[in-house]
Amino acid sequence: MEKGYLCIVLHGHLPFVRHPEHENFLEEEWLYEAITETYIPLLNIFDKLIEDGVNFRITMGVSPPLISMLLDPLLQHRYIMHIEKLIELASREVERTRWQPEFNKLALMYLSKFNLARYYFAEKHRGNLLEAFKRVQDAGRLDIMTCGATHGFFPLMETCKDSIRAQVRAAVEQYKKVFQRQPKGIWLPECGYHPGDDEILKENGIRYFFTDTHGVLHGTPRPKYGVFAPVYCKSGVACFGRDLESSKQVWSAKQGYPGDYNYREFYRDIGFDLEFDYIKPYIHPDGIRTNTGIKYYRITGETDNKQPYNEEVAMQTAASHAANFMFNREKQADYVKEIIKRKPIIVAPYDAELFGHWWYEGPNWLNFLIRKIAYDQKNIKLISPSDYLDEYPKNQVITPSLSSWGYKGYAEFWLEGSNAWVYRHLHKASERMSELVKLYPEAGGLTLRALNQALREVLLAQSSDWAFIMKTGTHVSYAVDRTKKHVLNFTKLYNQIKANNIKEQWLGEIESKDNIFPDISYKFHS
Questions:
Q1: Which of 149, 155, 263, 447 could form a disulfide with 170 if both were Cys (CB 3.0 to 4.6 A apart)?
Q2: How many CA atoms lie within 13 A of 363 on its CB side?
Q3: CA distance 204 to 227
Q4: Pick from 408, 428, 458: which residue ends a domain?
């Protein structure tokens, strides 16, 4: 009989980046990289585990922007072009490295990986990876959550609750259409919680959400079981807190597993290492060097003299780290159970893109861990939050504190010198959107189209990704441009609607470009 439960949570999210007006748009590659390096490897592992009869439960968030991009025919077509170009590059690398055994073996590895990705995406699933995730959920192995519609940071949207309602309503409606069921849980964007937001979750049938550790520990009253059991908000929605120990072992490059010297070095890519004329056909057409995903070196250590990557050694290391992680969770569950006198749940949430993209061996580590938990021990069991609530329906009622999983734990990362300017514009747009809903309670025809598009523009402007990028200092001009573009589009629509002078041609252009949530209703913002 198990002594406790482990809840592994993978948060899958990318900002909505879709530019039909450009044949090659640099930021669209964020999606293509994630498909090749994270989503397909994870799905392959889930499929193999099911095929082998391994019992497991993983909780995974798939954000609405990510869902929208994975369903988009244009991006599906462009991904196939992207992976075919990588197959061509890997084939050339096999030839170029034929007299370099360490690198030739890796070139063959990448060629096999890219061919598999193309087969899995284009042939096995005909471009629809969401159908693959749905099948794993329908098999009872995944508990797929929703998220905010465009990953808006809820604690900084409190001046207009209508926008939070729209973020949740649009997400839930999309989820029900794609997965043919009601979502049980939600990943609050950036784990950002503000007391009272759970009432909106309840309105939309959400059963549970997550906060960072201090969101629960600083709640009122203090939680009896810490983060090792869920708490109920006064609304009846359950809140699960992150376990710091298990999280740090995985996500920290300095203190956790991903920094091991045997693992692949992310920052050495042939897109930057090789001669420009050779690599030029495989990077951005403007000559901007980009990552190709072909990386030949291991981390090695704090040195520029990196050693060749050895896949066999890296896999052995991943298996060892999986065993270490399992051992630590066994001891942790045993210790905590003696204190709280019930089976604890250890919540270990991570960005899904850590697995495979940033930490190349991450999917294999997860595969080893799941199999070891299933066959090598009896002290812990993988579980989803809804499963735990079914077993322990009675829990303490508290009010979690305002919190996020960002730097310093609150809102500083999304509200400081580089990005504070955006909020007066976002708040004004939200206020005006609520005004439009009241002015046009039963719109139709062209006005209805304009109102629906106005809400799309508000939601897209609210994405926390833009403020995050401004803070980190990478792709800043793009984040600024996206924020301004969506606010300006909304403002133009607002003025045209109120003046009864909607420009249908221009409306059609932005409907085609910013086409997220085709079934959206402007009334969500109320």
A1: 149
A2: 20
A3: 25
A4: 408
The stretches of 97-145 forming alpha helices (DSSP H) are 101-118, 129-138
Domain that holds residue 463: 415-524
Cα radius of gyration (the chain):
23
pTM across the whole model? 0.97
Report which residue type is found at 328: N
Q: Do both 426 and 449 map to the same domain?
A: yes
End-to-end CA, the chain: 49
- Rounded CA separation 234/400 (Å): 10
CATH code, 178: 3.20.110.10
Lowest mean pLDDT among 177-181, 222-226, 285-289, 332-336: 285-289
Residue 276: how many CA atoms within 13 Å on its side-chain side? 6
Reference 66, options 291, 352, 284; nearest CA is 352
Structure tokens at 382: 């993988």
From the list 7, 381, 4, 344, the residue with the least C-alpha distance to 185 is 7
Q: What is the pLDDT of residues 503-526, one digit of tens each?
A: 999 999 999 999 999 999 999 999
Taking CA atoms, 348 is separated from 45, 251, 325, 383, 384, in Å, by 19, 10, 11, 11, 11
324-346: pLDDT as tens digits: 999 999 999 999 999 999 999 99
Same domain? For 365 and 514 the reply is: no
- State how far the Cα of 20 lies from the Cα of 26, in Å rounded to an integer: 12
List, in order, residues 6 or more apart from 35 with CB less than 8 Å away.
70, 79, 117, 121, 129
